Amino acid sequence: MDVEKTRENVSNRLLVSLGLHSAAIIAFQLSLMQLISIVQWHHFAYMIISIAMLGFGASGTLLALARKKTMKHSHWLVPLLMMLSGVLMMVVFPLSRAGFLRFDVFLLFSGGGGWLALLMNYLVFFLPFFFGALAIGIIFIRQSSQIGSLYFSNLIGSGAGGLLVLLLMSAVFPLRVPAFIGLLSILSGLLLSDRRIIRWALPAGISGLLLTVYLFFAPGLLQLSEYKSLEMALHLPEATVTQTTPSVYGLVQVVHSPAQRFAPAVSFSYTDEIPGGKVIFVNGDFFGHILEPAENPLEHILNYTTQQLPFVLSDPERVLCINAGTGVAVSHALANGAGKIDAVIENRAVVSLLKNELKQASGGVFQEPGVEVHALQARNFLAGESRWDYDLIVLPLLDGFGGTSGLNALREEYSYTLESFQLMLQRLSPKGMIAVSTWLDYPPRTSLKIPATLVEAALGSGIEAPLRHIAAIRSWGTLTFILKKEPLNETEIGAIRHFCDEMFFDPLLLPGLRPEERQQYNLTDDPQYFDRLDRIMAGDSRALEDYGFTIAPSTDNKPYFSQFLRLGSLRHMAGIFGDEQMPFLELGYLTLIITLAQSALLALILIVVPLFALKKSRYKKSATLVYFGALGLGYMFAEIILIQRFVLYFGQPVFAVATVISTMMLFSGVGSRLSQKLEAGPCNIRNIAFLAAGLLLLFAFVLTPLLQASIALGNASKIAISLLSIGIPAFVMGMLFPLGVRFLDRHDPEQIPWAWGINGCLSVISTSLATLLAVESGFQAVIIIAALAYLLAAMAFSFSSKIFRKNSVS
Amino acid sequence: MSRKFLYLLVLGSLVLLLASQTGSDPYEANRQQMVNEQIRARGIDHYPTLEAMERVPRHRFVPREQQRFAYFDRPLPIGYGQTISQPYIVAYMTQIIDPKPHHKVLEIGTGSGYQAAILAEIVDHVYTIEIVPELGRSASRLLNELYDNVSVKIADGYHGWEEAGPFDAIVVTAAAGTIPPPLIEQLKEGGKMIIPVGSPYLTQQLMLVEKRSRRYTTRSLMPVRFVPFRRSE
Lengths: 810, 233
Known about the structure:
The complex is a heterodimer of chains A (about 800) and B (about 230).
Chain A: H1 7-39, H2 42-65, H3 67-72, H4 74-96, H5 105-109, H6 115-142, H7 147-171, H8 177-191, H9 198-217, H10 229-233, E1 240-245, E2 252-261, E3 276-282, E4 285-289, H11 309-313, E5 318-321, H12 328-335, E6 340-344, H13 348-355, E7 371-374, H14 378-385, E8 390-394, H15 418-426, E9 428-439, H16 446-460, E10 470-474, E11 478-484, H17 490-503, E12 506-509, E13 522-524, H18 528-537, H19 542-545, H20 570-577, H21 582-585, H22 587-608, H23 618-650, H24 653-675, H25 682-710, H26 715-747, H27 752-777, H28 779-809
Parallel strand pairs in A: 5-6, 5-8, 6-7, 8-9
Antiparallel strand pairs in A: 1-2, 2-3, 3-4, 9-11, 10-11, 10-12
Helix pairs in contact in A: 1-2, 1-4, 1-6, 1-7, 1-8, 2-6, 2-22, 2-27, 4-6, 4-8, 4-9, 6-7, 7-24, 8-9, 15-16, 16-18, 22-27, 23-24, 23-25, 23-26, 23-27, 23-28, 24-26, 25-26, 25-28, 27-28
Chain B: H1 3-22, H2 28-39, H3 47-55, E1 76-79, E2 82-84, H4 87-96, E3 104-108, H5 114-120, E4 125-130, H6 133-146, E5 150-154, E6 167-172, H7 181-185, E7 187-197, E8 205-212, E9 215-223
Parallel strand pairs in B: 3-4, 3-6, 4-5, 6-7
Antiparallel strand pairs in B: 1-2, 7-8, 8-9
Helix pairs in contact in B: 2-3
C-alpha cells in the first residue's frame, strides 16, 4: 500500500496497528518483570529490564545512522519488525532459562560466575524491545507531520497495554501471558501488510497464531533459582504445591510440607511439638505460614515468643492487626481473648484463599466472629475506615530471619513512617498500645530504627517522656517493642520481668532497668548496640547521625523504612566490613546503583554514536539533546512520583498504578492529538513547556496536602480528584514531544530519529534515577526536578529556535 | 660397579619418584595455604581444628566444576539451594564447640559432609542428618569411604537423633528461625549448640546455645561471613 497516495487509509489502519503494537510492548515489559521476579528477584528483574528497554534508545541510534535506507524499505520493514518483535516476545523468556543462558543472580554476587550468561540475557531481552521500537520509530519518522495523532495512538495503546497485562496476570498462568501479548504485535504487523508483502506476512501471522496456541497449552515450567524460598521449600520431605493462583499481586502458591514449621524464635521453655504445614509464597518468595488451629484455643505458639509482650500487660478487647498477612496475628489476638479484631491486608488474592480454599487449614481465622478483614493499606484504613479506638495495634514481624540484606530497601512502607505511628497513636484508646516486632539483624539497623521512630512519634504526639511509655524485650532471635499511651506502671514492669524469666528472654527497655538485666539469658559480643539504643532513647540526635547506617525515622516523603545505606559513608562501612561484605548488607540499594550506572553508560554510547552521522552545527544538536532529554526525564519523574503518591492515596497499589498510568497515557494522548492543531512554533512550545513546569512546581507543594486532606473521602470523590490532578499536567506534558518532532520535521528532519532515541534513553535512566533521588532526597525533590526539567526544555527550545532562525536567515 | 647395575639404580629411582607423585594430593599446597591464611591468621588456635582442616580434602566435598575454588575464601554452591560453608566458618564453628576426643556430636544439615568430616577427625563419633535425600546420599558415600566414625541419616533434623543422644555438642549448619525442642532435649548438660543466624550467601551471625541446669543461655557471636568483625569506630 503506497503511503503517499493512501495517507488517510493508512492513517486509520496505522493508528490501530500502532496502538496494538504499543500495547504489546508495555504489556510485555510488565509481564517480563513479573516472570523474572518469580525466577530471580524483583530488583534483578529491574536491572535486566532497564537494559532491555534501552532498545528504544538503540532504535533511535540505528535510525539516525541508516535513516534513508530504512525509510526506503519501510513498507515491508515495519510489519516485519512488528511480527519479529511479537515472536521474540513469545520465546525470549523460555530461551533465557535454557542451557547456557541460564544464570543465578545469587551466584553472580558470590563469585559463582554467570556473568557471561547475564550478558547474553541482556541481549536476548533487548531484542524484542529493539525491533518493536524500530517499528514505532520508523512510523514516527516516516509521517512526522502527523506525529500528534501517531503519538496519541502510541500513548493510548501503552495505557491499554498496562491494563491488559493486569487482566492477564489475574487470570492466566504467568508463562502463558507473553504468548497472548506477542500475538498482538503479530496482528499489528499483519494489519499493515499490503499486497506486496501479504504472501509472506500471512503465513508468518498464521505461524504466530499457531505458536501462541502451542505456548498456551505447553508453556513449560517456571524454573526458579534454587536459592528462592519456594524452590528450597520444595526440597523438604513430602513437599507439594497444593495451590497455584495467578493474581495481580503476583503468582500465589501454597506449599505443604510437615517440615515447614512456624515458631519464630520460640522460647526454650516451649517443649511441645511444633506442627508443620502450609506456607504461602508470592512470586516464589516467602509470604507467610498458615497456622493450623491448636487443640487448646488458648494456646498459641506466639505466646512463647517476644510477640506475647502486649498480652502480658493487658487483655486488649479491640485489636487492629496491620499487614495481617496469613492471619497469624489475628489468631494470636483471638487466643488472648480479643473480641473485636480488624485485620488489614493488601493482598486480596491471599485473603480470598484464606476465606475459601484454605479456610479449613487456617481454622477459618478470617471468619471468626468479631474479625473483619479490610483489603487495603493500613494508612488508608486508619485515616478513613477504622471503626473505633484500639486497645492494641499490632504490626507484623519485620525483616527476615537474620535480616533480608536490604532486599526491601526500595519498597515504600507507609505503615512504618513517622506519620503512620503518629496516626496510630491517635487511634489508641486511653490505655492502648502499639506493638512492633523484628528479627534481630546484624549490623543493627531495624532494631535501632524502630525505637528511633517510636521515640520521635511519641514526642510528636505530646508524650514528654517516651522512656516511661516504651518497653522492649529480646530473645535469641527477635525483639518486640511496645509504645503505650499511658506510662508503664510498676505492676506492668514487674509482669514484663516475670515473663522474661519464664521464657529465657531479656528486658531491653524498661523504666528502671539495670544494665546487667539486659544479658541474663541472651548475651552479645557487641555491647555498642545497647549504648546506641540508650542514646536514641535519650533523644540524642547524634546517635542517628553518626551511625554508619541510616536509622532516622522514615517519613511519608521518604517512606523507605528498610533503606539503611548511606552513600556518604559507603567507603567507611566498606573499610569496616570489607568490600566483599557490602553487597550482602544492602543488596537492594546497590542493585539500584548498578542499574543506574549500566543504563547511563549504555545510554551515553547510544546518544553519542549518532553524532558522527549528523553533520549539522553542534549548537543545534545540543539543543535537541537538552530538549528531548529533558522531556524524557521530566515525564518519567512525574509519573513515578504520581504513582508513589497515589499508592498511599488509594491504599491499593495495583489500583493506584493502573489509575495513574492509564490516566497519564489517556490525557497525554489527548494532549498529543490536540497539539496537531497547534502551530509547532517556538512560542507555543516554549509557553507550553513553561506551563508544564509551573504545574509540576505547584504539585510539589500542593499535591501532598490535597491528598492528605481528601484521603478519607469515598472512592468516587478520590477518583475525580485523581483524574483532575493527574490529567491536567499529563495533558500539557503530552503536547511537547509531538510539537518538538514537528518542529524538527520542518527545520531539521535528520535529527528526528536521534531525538526519538534520546527520549527513549532518558526515560530508561529516569526510572532508576528517580528512585535513587526519592530514597536520598524525598518525593518532593524529585517532582521539583521534574519541573526544572520542563523549564530546561523551554529554555533549550528558546535557544534552539534562535539558532534555527539565524541559520535560515543566513 | 657394573654399568648395568647403575642403569637399574637410576631407573628404579625414577619409578619410585613417579609412584610418589601419582599418590600425592594435588590440592595439598592449597589446603596448607588456606589453613595458614584464612584460618590461623584469623585467630583460630584450637590445635585439633587446625590439624583437621589440614587433613580433610575439602575439594572432594564440592562438585567437580567447583573443585578449583574449593580452597577459596568463600562458600560454594553444592546444589539444591545448599552450600558448603566458607572454610573459616567451619573452623570457627568447630573451635567454638571445643570438641574433645571422647565427644559425641550431632550435626543437623550434612550438606556436603565437610563439617562432619572435620568433626570426625577430632571426636569419637559424629551423627549427621540431612533432609535433602540427594545430598544425604552423596555425603554418606564420601564420609563412609573416608571415616568409620560417622553415621549419616536422611531425615528431618527437627527430631534430632534421639536413640544416639544425648550429645556433647550439636552443630546446626542450616539456618532456621526455630530451635526445635527435641534438639534442646538431646543436648547434654553443659553441652554447646552452635547455629548460624542468616542466609549462607548473606550476612551471617553465629549463635552459641549453652545448657546448664535446665537454664539456657545464648550468645550472639560476631558476624563471620568473611572475616572476623573488628570494629575500628
